[in-house]
Write a structure and sequence with these properties.
Blueprint (H helix, E strand, L loop, with lengths): L1 H12 L4 H23 L16 H36 L5 H5 L2 H21 L13 H28 L2 H19 L24 H4 L1 E4 L4 E6 L1 H11 L2 E4 L6 E2 L4 E6 L5 H9 L1 E4 L9 H14 L7 H19 L7 E3 L5 E4 L5 H15 L4 H14 L6 H21 L3 H22 L6
Parallel strand pairs: 3-8
Antiparallel strand pairs: 1-5, 2-4, 2-6, 3-5, 7-8
Length: 449
């Protein structure tokens, strides 16, 4: 339930309608409140305030009409600018980055401010009565409308600056990098050496039945979608209630085909109710999210770098910036305790096997494609090797160092084929030797295997 609620919050945060709708609702309530105060006020408080609006019905109608008309025009313009920014982001950075722009709270508030001011003005305008015997001018409500109009001018100035800043490539890369590190902190909260693991890293020989592969039954997926999140607490409870061992077959971010196995359940259990309960523990959707998928923001940075290295763009500086952000995130991940794949219940019985994302897998995801696209780019190749030199001191296991050395060797070999100039190859060789030296110097200092 918590996992699905988190997904709902993420969906609302990624929409352009939720925040403006809330602001419009608040504007409607504010209009009723101010009108009610004007109707019940026994003294002309507003008339005693010099800067407040205190003219007659015709002037009030004119002002509110001008505010309403201008706000809907500005809202239309702001929406058009937002759509242009989304188009630029899609073409320059890739369609996967659209979600980040959709989640921009600043743009949502800007649109909400213009629309809510428009709605507020209409709600107040309808109450103005110019008939002599029943004349009513809600001075407080009109004054508040003027205040909202002035606030909208300030929001418009902010929006112009924000729109220009939000499509700058360094800001886009920085925001994705921050999201990647926040995802790492959320999924891997424990630092190495600062918390005891609740589960064994490797199961005992008796924990997994010898006939598991033969006797387990696959629980099929109900639809073809991406795995956005998995509620392992629900699966653990199901495994305890049904006395099962459940092996999850997919990571968040994987694409599953309808009918393919989501999990393997042992002993064989294919009751319709259980199949539905297990499917309900998986949050599936048409696109990937960062809810539990640490590889998704890595892929976003890699996509920006790959587009920058394409022959049509040829922008190695952007690719170098992406490598810098990826190296910072990998340094952060290398210091985290990766949860065990084997989850035991309170009676120390193995119940759920859930494959965890490892440092090596994240490193492969971050470096492989950039290396392939940058085999002829001296600047990016050198920066990849420099990144390995930076990451090495942050690692804590021999396996992590071995993965870094494998990438250093692969990058260096690829550069010998892709780079023609001998001096450039020597520069790459120097960076390679520096990376190998950093790995060798740290190899004797790692804490555990």
């Amino acid at each position: 339930m918590k996992t699905k609620f988190t997904r709902l919050l993420d969906t609302l945060h990624s929409s352009f309608w939720f925040v403006p709708t809330l602001m419009v609702a608040i504007a409607i309530l504010l209009s009723f409140l101010t009108i009610q105060i004007d109707q019940n006020a026994k003294t002309d408080i507003i008339g005693d305030i010099g800067w407040a609006y205190a003219l007659g019905p015709s002037g009030s109608r004119a002002i509110l009409s001008a505010i309403a008309g201008s706000m809907i025009s500005v809202a239309t313009t702001a929406f058009s600018i937002t759509i242009v920014a989304l188009q630029l982001a899609s073409s320059q950075f890739g369609p996967r980055l659209l979600r980040n722009f959709m989640q921009d709270t600043g743009n949502q508030i800007v649109l909400g401010t213009f629309i809510s001011t428009f709605v507020y003005s209409l709600m107040v305008l309808r109450t103005i009565n110019g008939v002599n015997e029943n004349e009513f001018v809600p001075h407080l409500a009109v004054t508040v409308g003027l205040g909202l109009a002035l606030a909208s001018v300030g929001v418009l100035i902010y929006f112009i600056h924000h729109s220009a800043a939000s499509i700058q490539v360094d800001n886009v890369i920085g925001k994705v990098g921050e999201e990647l590190e926040a995802t790492i902190d959320r999924l891997f909260p424990t630092q190495i050496g600062r918390g005891a693991s609740k589960h064994r890293q490797e199961p005992l020989s008796v924990d997994i039945p010898a006939d598991f592969d033969r006797e387990s039954s696959p629980i099929p997926a109900a639809s073809s979608c991406y795995v956005q999140a998995i509620d392992t607490d629900v699966l653990m409870q199901l495994a305890k209630d049904e006395d099962l061992l459940i092996a999850i077959q997919h990571h968040p971010g994987d694409f599953v085909v309808k009918g393919s196995p989501l999990v393997l359940a042992y002993p064989a259990a294919a009751r319709k109710k259980l199949v539905k309960q297990i499917n309900d523990a998986f949050v599936l959707g048409v696109q990937r999210t960062v809810q539990q998928d640490v590889k998704f923001p890595i892929d976003q940075l890699v996509e920006i770098a790959a587009r920058a290295l394409s022959p049509g763009i040829n922008d190695p500086f952007t690719a170098v910036t992406c490598v810098d952000r990826l190296s910072a995130a990998l340094c952060h991940l290398a210091q985290k305790e990766i949860p065990s794949s084997y989850r035991y219940d309170d009676k120390d019985k193995l119940r759920v096997i859930a494959r965890s994302v490892t440092f090596e897998a994240a490193l492969d995801k971050a470096f492989n494609q950039i290396r392939q696209y940058a085999h002829s780019s001296v600047a990016v190749t050198i920066r990849l090797l420099d990144a390995i030199s930076i990451i090495a001191p942050f690692t804590h296991t021999k396996a992590d160092l071995t993965a870094l050395l494998r990438h250093a060797n692969t990058i260096e070999r690829g550069s010998q084929d892709g780079i023609v100039e001998a001096l450039d190859r020597q520069d790459v060789r120097d960076s390679y030797l520096a990376a190998v030296t950093a790995i060798d110097n740290h190899r004797s200092k790692y804490v555990s295997d």
